[in-house]
Fold this sequence. Notes:
The protein is an alpha/beta fold and 257 residues long. The strands form 2 sheets. The chain has a 6-stranded mixed beta sheet, sandwiched between helices. A 3-stranded mixed beta sheet has the order 5-7-8.
Amino acid sequence: MSLLKLDVANQIATLTIESPPANALSRDLLKSLDEQFDHISENENVKAIILKGEGKFFSAGADIKEFTSLQSASDIAALAKNGQSVFKKIEDYPVPVIASIHGAALGGGLELALSCHIRIVTKSALLGLPETNLGIIPGFAGTQRLPNVVGQAKATEMMLTAEPIKGEEAGKLGLANHVVEEDELEAFTLELAKKIAHKSKMTINNVMELVSYATRENFEEGVAKEADLFSVVFQTEDAKEGIEAFIEKRKANFQDK
Length: 257
């Protein structure tokens, strides 16, 4: 079963995540994202991409149950580096990717949204990096991208408290370009994509290339360190307890080891 649906019309590609119930970012979904963005790049007519989620959520996070199958430090680090690589491809894409966010963009879901160039959210959407609730840390470059968007102080608070923010606050912080009502999200996002698609492909490509320079300083060093530390933290006793508590729907009892 395909985890992503691709539609192309009027020079706009729409990618819909279809992995119920939470559109969790499994390894298969990351692979599908990677392949679909390669596929879209072959279409010279596409000038903008809309990325959205089917059902209740944009994406409620990474596939935590799948994480539990990982045993070695190298496998854990490889998972983080793979996600980082896919999201970097999106961030460096030659046409803009617009994240259309409803329900929730949490953990890996927010990290995916952060790799997009423009974010449209509903007022009631929840956005956050709640990994510390599980005794782990973000692993798909969230520790590097979130501070660049909302500032170091707010990003630190969001990651350490693990408390999500609503769409309206996301707009005030600059995490969202626009905040809309639930029933306006699809039409608003499409209209914005149409405005972009009316521009010359050459100007779009050049603006995208130039804007990317603004986020490169120390980024590669930061995400490499994140992958290493993600692997270290993931193998702690607290990480095991946090993940088990999440799966069992109970509060984690961390022992700081």
